[in-house]
Design brief:
Oligomer: single chain
Shape: globular
Helix content: 40-55%
Radius of gyration: 21 Å
Number of strands: 11
Mean pLDDT: 88
Low-confidence stretches: none
Strand content: 15-25%
């Protein structure tokens, strides 16, 4: 819990408000999970992620995804050059920005699928293959991908199978009026703030192992599995869910729910998660894993509304 307080203290030097988002990012970091951030431009997403990398003493790189971005712009490329010793020409690999600990993939849906796949393969495999050589990425390795929810023209939405590789989907909203006033008043302090490291990668790895090894009771696992299965369409599915969803969440969602609940219990000084911990992380884990249909849109329902409905009826 002290680590969490120190983390919040450093991040609050540059980010005013957004406490729940910062909590949920911290949970994902403890679970070694990747995150999709959705929010309109100007909500300090880049500043937030850069500040997190400083607080954790990790290397940060930002990649602006554009329609002409090539896979080699992410992974790196081989260049022919002359060996000064032998005089022979040979290939030398120059690493791309993905060879850092925290990657901000800005507007990931603006680049074509081939380039998206280069990033998503690295997320899954934790390595990059160029020619006949495989290069391991740094540990820990986190991807924060942003999507602009407004401009959809000229975008390439991520397929569901690729979205499933992200642990959390977090929605960043506008600050409150008081928060926005504080942001404007403190702009100089925010720009010049110095973020101090509170932990290193080895210590972070120890906390991640604590999360993995945390015991959990069967009734909490049963609730998580029951909730995820309630989003799938079969003969036992709730009639409203049948009406609103085209597709439900897969088994990875159940695993992610349990892992995130463990991390949330840990930062709240508890030795095992409870059902309330699972409920706290349901929306970030599931909102990008269920696919509403036109009936839900016609009824004015978002993914979060459908998940709220399920939270009310599942015990």
């Amino acid at each position: 819990n002290q680590l969490k307080k120190d983390f919040n203290k450093e991040i609050s030097k540059v980010i005013i408000g957004q406490n729940k988002i910062i909590d949920q990012i911290f949970i994902a970091l403890l679970c070694n999970g990747h995150i999709i951030l959705e929010g309109v431009p100007g909500l300090a997403k880049t500043l937030l992620i850069n500040s997190i990398s400083k607080a954790l003493d990790l290397k940060f790189s930002r990649i602006q995804f554009t329609p002409d971005l090539m896979p080699s712009d992410i992974t790196g490329t081989e260049i022919i050059q002359e060996n000064k010793t032998s005089g022979k020409r040979e290939f030398k690999f120059y690493k791309g920005p993905i060879f850092n600990n925290i990657i901000l993939a800005d507007e990931i849906n603006r680049t074509p699928p081939k380039t998206q796949a280069a990033l998503l393969q690295a997320m899954q495999e934790k390595n990059v293959t160029i020619g006949n050589e495989t290069y391991n990425l740094k540990k820990p390795f986190f991807v924060f991908a942003t999507q602009n929810p407004i401009e959809q023209e000229g975008t390439y939405p991520l397929p569901e199978a690729q979205l499933d590789r992200f642990m959390f989907n977090l929605i960043i909203n506008y600050p409150t009026r008081n928060e926005e006033t504080l942001i404007v008043q403190n702009m100089d302090n925010i720009i010049n703030a110095e973020i101090k490291p509170i932990i290193n990668s080895e210590q972070l790895n120890k906390f991640q192992k604590l999360v993995v090894n945390m015991p959990i009771s069967d009734n909490v696992i049963d609730f998580a599995v029951k909730f995820v299965r309630s989003t799938r369409l079969d003969k036992n599915t709730n009639e409203s869910i049948k009406k609103w969803l085209n597709w439900g969440a897969g088994p990875r969602a159940s695993s992610m729910l349990i892992m995130a609940a463990k991390a949330y219990a840990l930062i709240n000084n508890r030795t095992t998660p409870e059902i309330s911990d699972v409920k706290y992380v349901i929306k970030p884990v599931l909102r990008h894993r269920i696919i509403p249909n036109f009936n839900a849109e016609a009824d004015g329902l978002s993914c979060d509304d459908i998940l709220d409905y399920l939270l009310n009826i599942i015990e």
